[in-house]
Amino acid sequence: MQTELAPIYSWASRVSRSGVLLLLALLGIVRIFVGEISLSYQLVIALFALLVGIPHGAIDHLISIPSKPKSRFFAYIFIYIAIAFLSGWFIAANNVLGFQIIVIMSAIHFGFGDASYLNEKADSSSKPRHPFWIETLYAIPAGFLPVLLPLTDHRTLKALNRINPKLDSWAGSEMKYIRIVTLFIAIISILVFLLVRELSLVVDLALLAALSMIAPPLIAFATYFGFWHAIRHTARLVPQLARAKELAMSGHWQAALWAAIKPGLYAVVGTIAIAALLMVKRPAEFSSSLLWSTLVIIWALTVPHMISTARFDRFALKSK
User: Fold this and answer.
1) What are the CA-CA distances from residue 240 to residues 128, 144, 160, 228, 273 (Å)?
2) Using one digit for the tens of pLDDT, what is the confidence trace for 135-155?
3) Are 205 and 142 in contact (CB under 8 A)?
4) CB–CB of 238/5 below 8 Å?
5) Residue 288: its pLDDT value, please?
6) What's the whole-model pTM score?
């Protein structure tokens, strides 16, 4: 991978880490002078962060298969939409089970996606990739911390009940044990990375743990999704898109990033429109909450996105 991509990966790391630090600082200031953020404001902040993260997963059709022959391209689009539609229907019809499946799939997707990002970042700086055991030891807590810790936080029950009352007991009586195991794995990973002097990985996991334990659950996950995972994944899209890569190779890395973001902006507008329509037309199935409707759509689109990205990640996780 060309060294001209190094500024893009460095930018993604700086912004994702700085975003988490800034949020934690702002939360500290708010708690000192105002107190806890009301649930209504949490919902607004979470919705905004989730929408920011949508474009990174909306251009799989541009990077997953060749545009020719057209028959293959259109077949891919049809299958992709069909999977998304069936996933959305399943989640809407089976709220708890659908939520549980999405939680596990998302944690694995996020973790190994971020591990893939680190390998590609190393490629861009002509550094050696991490061995697979390091990637795995990083990927598991990197994916499960921002997903499971917010969902097992005591503040989650009220928030989930506001979004969809069926979800407030999604983990039953096992919530405490899920939380303990997740934290234990993260601590083991951090200790190992300290021993092998992988300090950058320690910083990442420490920030994710702090975000997931300190921030209100909705804000914690939405911030991770929109301002950590999505930003890092967007950096990975640049070498996959011809126009973005061309701009990066010519030294215009900011324009290259925009070229990777712009094709997915339609999904933000579409998500808002569809969520509003579902909220009005199908309240019994999608709940009266705009956030729940938006989440169902995002999760439905995430399923085929995760399947497409798995192939993308597999190559990035291989040793060179």
Assistant:
1) 21, 27, 37, 20, 29
2) 999 999 999 999 999 888 877
3) yes
4) yes
5) 44
6) 0.82
